[in-house]
Design a protein that fits this description.
By secondary structure, the protein is α+β, with helices and mostly antiparallel strands. The chain has four domains: 2-119, Aminopeptidase (3-Layer(aba) Sandwich), CATH 3.40.630; 121-265, Aminopeptidase; 298-400, Aminopeptidase (3-Layer(aba) Sandwich), CATH 3.40.630.30; 425-553, 3-Layer(aba) Sandwich (Aminopeptidase). It is built from 16 helices and 27 strands. Helix 7 (165-176) runs antiparallel to helix 8 (183-197). The two termini are 58 Å apart.
């Protein structure tokens, strides 16, 4: 492997062109510009080139191999061999999504992948940034017009070349006088000098704006691919309104017609830079991923993983309290129902397949209920949960007719075959001043009353969960107490006629579950609640009709595992446990 230099960069360039990755690290100009901070070493072969980058006092990391897709396998094999021989970590960084997917498909369960969110390239439409046309460009257009109005006849745009070099250096010194110079700014300054000192030898271009004879803005760019230009550096006097917009617009006006996109690199995780790049309306962001050759494994949970499982639960389900988490892991969590995707000692993601008995067309059916779906934040966006869910669905194929799932984002699971099957209606009750009927409300005293009402209510429903007395005593009532929910039973003629699970806030009253004996009982219960001063929301089955505004909502997804037709009518389920 040899260090990339001004003397040999052209040896690597043809291979980079073959790969056509469109991401800004895959550019010899980028590599040379930042060589004082990130040295690049490479080797070429007949069909591919491999390269790694190394920061001072850091271990080297590999870049994607440079070749056509059909030579990637041998290129990655070469990287592996070199890593083993020279004691370099077999890690590939700055990967595009397309390359990451290829790596995962080619080497299943062999690489640990993570999303480098702060390293995403911002890509813009060249014509949009050049013409500033359209509603999205209105603010930028206004700034540019303000620049023209103030400096018309006083500014001139010039091509970046040897004649402008010393003026650029002078402007850099001025620009840096307002900055706290750190390693990154020093390395950038070194890189700019390197590029401009060799402007005739390197494939760079750019422009400058002079105002009243003084350089006030410049940029440096190079072609990243056949249809994309990359902006390496862009500096302007921030005191001059619209100048940043002007230097980009005027430079883009000089480009050939085949340039369609502008790559403005990443935001480095800096909030102000992220906002500025986002405000420019990118057409896309090029995702970047890192990888390490580290085996993945799907396994059933055991006691050794409980602490990490609970930690991930607390991290990802922040609405849970310490008390509710303790309740869940004592009463509901079972190791045999929990699947993990792990890499060495690291928990990547998890889910649970808790068994639930559903009454379907009058028959009890045992089905899995997917809950506790969580991914370590460091590995979100890498496809790991999809990998684990597909595995989980295979394990229950042939053992159950369908799978149930609840989610915060229903759309995420549609690609796995889940359908928004169960619905409920959230009613905002119309306030009433009429006196309520003669029934009374009592706090629950006997769990048997709740079970009796529930079973009677469900006689007219389908797809409901089978509950028993133990469920109400050991799960339902303790869970309500944890969340400060009130369980109130409605009585008429000394008989329980319905119950509600009630949550109170300062302005609202929310009925999370409403079970009633018949239509008359429902209307009496709602008439009472409608007299509340607070706004009242009630979650009801789809057949119920009350006075107020209705909003249908999905409450459960279903994935069919056999050819049996799932019923559509009178479906009811209300499960959070």
């Amino acid at each position: 492997m040899k260090k990339l230099t001004l003397e040999n960069w052209q040896e690597l360039q043809p291979y980079i062109a073959l790969a056509d990755y469109h991401e800004y690290n895959s550019n010899t100009v980028t590599m040379l510009m930042w060589t004082s901070m990130y040295e690049v070493y490479f080797e070429t072969y007949p069909d591919y080139a491999i390269a790694y980058t190394c920061m001072p006092h850091r271990e080297p990391v590999w870049l994607m191999p440079y070749c056509t897709r059909d030579h990637r396998f041998e290129a990655v094999h070469s990287i592996r061999t070199y890593s083993q021989k020279h004691g370099i970590a077999f890690e590939i960084h700055s990967m595009t999504k397309e390359f990451k997917n290829w790596l995962v498909d080619t080497y299943p369960m062999e690489f640990l992948i993570w999303d480098c969110y702060d390293a995403r390239d911002y890509v813009y439409d060249r014509r949009q940034q050049e013409t500033l046309s359209g509603k999205k460009m209105q603010k930028r257009r206004n700034h540019f017009h303000a620049f023209l109005k103030q400096y018309e006849g006083r500014f001139v745009y010039r091509q970046l070349d040897e004649s402008t070099r010393e003026d650029v250096y002078a402007f850099l010194r001025y620009w840096q006088s307002f900055k706290d110079v750190d390693d990154s700014i020093s390395a950038e300054d070194t890189g700019i000098h390197l590029l401009l000192e060799h402007i005739k030898e390197l494939p760079i271009e750019g422009g400058c704006i002079y105002i009243d004879g003084r350089l006030e803005a410049f940029n440096i760019a190079s072609r990243l691919s056949k249809d994309m230009i990359q902006i390496h550096v862009e500096k302007a006097n921030r005191e001059i309104r619209g100048l940043y917009i002007a230097i980009l617009k005027l430079y883009l006006e000089t480009l050939e017609e085949d340039i369609v996109y502008v790559n403005r690199e990443d935001d480095m995780g800096l909030p102000k830079l992220r906002k500025a790049k986002t405000d420019m309306q990118p057409v896309c962001k090029i995702q970047k991923f890192g990888s390490a050759h580290q085996a993945l494994k799907i396994q059933q949970a055991d006691a050794a993983w409980t602490r990490k499982i609970r930690s991930l639960w607390e991290q990802q389900f922040q609405e849970e309290t310490a008390e509710s988490t303790q309740f869940y892991f004592e009463r509901l969590y079972r190791e045999e129902n929990c699947l993990l995707l792990v890499s060495e000692e690291e928990l990547i993601c998890m889910l649970q397949l808790r068994p639930m008995t559903i009454v379907l067309d009058g028959k009890d059916v045992r089905v899995p209920f997917v809950v506790g779906v969580a991914t370590n934040p460091e590995y979100e966006g890498c496809g790991y949960m999809g990998m684990l869910l597909r595995y989980a669905l295979k394990t229950v194929q042939g053992k159950a007719p369908f799978v149930l799932l609840q989610a915060y984002n229903w759309d995420l699971y549609k690609s796995f075959g889940f359908i928004e099957q169960y619905q409920r209606v959230r009613w905002k009750l119309k306030k009433q001043s009429d006196a309520a009927d003669g029934g009374t409300w009592k706090q629950v005293e006997d769990a048997q009353d709740l079970l009796t009402l529930y079973l009677y209510f469900c006689e007219q429903k389908n797809g409901w969960r089978r509950r028993d007395l133990a469920y109400y005593k050991n799960q339902f009532l303790p869970n309500a107490a944890i969340w400060n929910q009130k369980i109130r039973v409605y009585w008429e003629d000394n008989q329980p006629r319905g119950y509600i699970v009630q949550e109170d806030s300062a302005q609202e009253l929310h009925i999370r579950e409403c079970i009633y004996a018949d239509e008359e009982a429902l209307q009496h219960m709602m008439r009472y609640l409608a007299q509340e001063e607070k706004t009242v929301y009630v979650d009801l089955d789809t057949e119920a009709q009350v006075e107020g505004r209705r909003k249908p909502e999905t409450c459960m997804m279903v994935k069919q595992l056999d050819k049996q037709t799932f019923p559509q009518d009178c479906l009811f389920i209300r499960e959070e446990l």
